[in-house]
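Example: Kinesin-like protein.
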Amino acid sequence: GLRAQRRRREMAAATSGNGRCLLSKVRAGRRPPPARVRVAVRLRPFVDGIAGANDTPCVRGLDSCSLEISNWRNHQETLKYQFDAFYGERSSQQDIYAGSVQPILRHLLEGQNASVLAYGPTGAGKTHTMLGSPEQPGVIPRALMDLLQLTREEGAEGRPWALSVTMSYLEIYQEKVLDLLDPASGDLVIREDCRGNILIPGLTQKPITGFADFERHFLPASRNRTVGATRLNQRSSRSHAVLLVKVDQRERLAPFRQREGKLYLIDLAGSEDNRRTGNKGLRLKESGAINTSLFVLGKVVDALNQGLPRVPYRDSKLTRLLQDSLGGSAHSILIANIAPERRFYLDTVTALNFAARSKEVINRPFTNESLQPHVLAPVRLSQKEPLGPTEAKRARGPEEEEIGSPESLAASASDTQKLSPLQKLSNIDPAMLERLLSLDRLLGSQGSQGTPLLSTPRRERMVLMKTVEEKDLEIERLKVKQKELEAKVLAQEAADLKEKENCSPTMLRPLAHRTAPVAKPLKKAVVMPLQLLQEQAASPNTEIHILKKKGRKRKLESLDASEPEEKAEDCWEPQISPELLAHGRQKILDLLNKGSARDLRSLQRIGQKKAQLIVGWRELHGPFSQVEDLERVEGISGKQMESFLKANILGLAAGQRCGPS
Ligand code: ADP
Ligand code: MG
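Written out as structure tokens, the predicted fold is:
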């Protein structure tokens, strides 16, 4: 009776889709210890058409596992990062695929899961790495080709297992799971079965037997995504595109076992900080959701790689989906894509910190050496050509082979370090460098080819380094000058203000004054972007503070002139003409409806964050019909709106006695 009962239970479980759970419960109890996520970094080359294509790079590779980046906080330091693999700007699609992806594919046929994730800021090469182009196919087409080939071989007639491959393609956008093969279906639910397998009931699965099948499903679905992009503000860079390839195996003979291996190929949302890049409106809203997923992904990778007991998979959709395919018994690789241009600097640092195995501060300025990969690499190549590798070895010995340029001949007699030529150069005392250069000039003017030590390209390098040094000094000089100018403008402003106050104290002055553009563009034109951004982040209200003080001062001064202080303050409001008030309101309303985030920041009480919230609200709800609508903006309270009105329309800093109440 007992046995029959149990059988019935099993049957019931089987029909409800949980049949396999009973069989494999034992296995589920002994989960393997969480595995590391391997991390590779790919530095793309400079790309035409991307701003800053003629920069000197601010990051470069050291060897097949490490790279260094300049530390803009401290010019005397360079930061060195170590990863499982580093792919430099000249690495090919095949290098990345063969080095980091291909080796994990065979595990799928052992019934294990795997994931490949491309991480990095928009424009750094995620899609190039994952998808590539017809001329340079990326990880996705290569992996599919190989996987299909592998399953054809392993599943051929006469082999013990029959194999089949299916694909699904989904997008995680604002923490919603959307089926790209069936765009009409809404947000899908992620479930976990009792064996710890993650599944999405209702997600389309298309069987694929050849690459043509894959393309047939994948290409239109990708277009779905791109259509969304133009309609919805570059949605594609804000969503995670998840391609799931499943390999199913069924044993042809008893005991007819089944195995399933899942491969996730993921083009992650851009990792740039949307608040910092000045995205507004809808995108500002999105960034929260995207940052949650990426943020949790970072924590999950961290927890896995440090062997922490709790891995917070459940804290985001993305990591929940990957729970059985990231860490654990799965084989996972995260490819952090970075770009060499300076404007990517902060995002590059973020991407490197995201999953670096180790980071090290090196006391060596980066700037002196940043010319190497860009300017000098071709020179090195062409110099190697006349000597074959073996001849070169005979001629120079192993050390110089490592150093890799004949010009080392003269210098290396006393120099046994295995370092790049530039590293040695950077150790030269600047005074010595100066003397060598002038000696070189002298010899040059006498028609000589230069000293052996200074023969090209070493000499060129020195000249270049010198130029860089001079440029750096020039920048420093400009910065000082700019500071002076700013101080001057501020002083001038203060003086102007005083003067105006003495003749016509209208209520609108603070607004009109604050929109006067003299000081601001100057600041923005000269300060280096990084510093500017940091300053803004640190104290978004600096200017407002200054003006508050002025406002108060102005009031006291003008009052001194007429009546006793307290009484005057009480009478302040009635002195404003209704036309002026209405005019002020209209002006502010116009600004609220037409101003950019930057314009809005010229208003009292509106910092960068609020300015973006306002622009965002406007994008979603249309224009403000009255200034009081500000209260409807999420993140701006009624109280804040009132204080905004006081500060801007009445020209009084909030918290003072004579506001309307
Ligand atoms: P993301 O997907 O991260 O936003 P993309 O893959 O679209 O970035 O790359 C941005 C641009 O840079 C594209 O024009 C792309 O073709 C180019 N690019 C990216 N990586 C490389 C590379 N390794 N070699 C050459 N071009 C690249
Ligand atoms: Mg992309």
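The mean pLDDT is 72.
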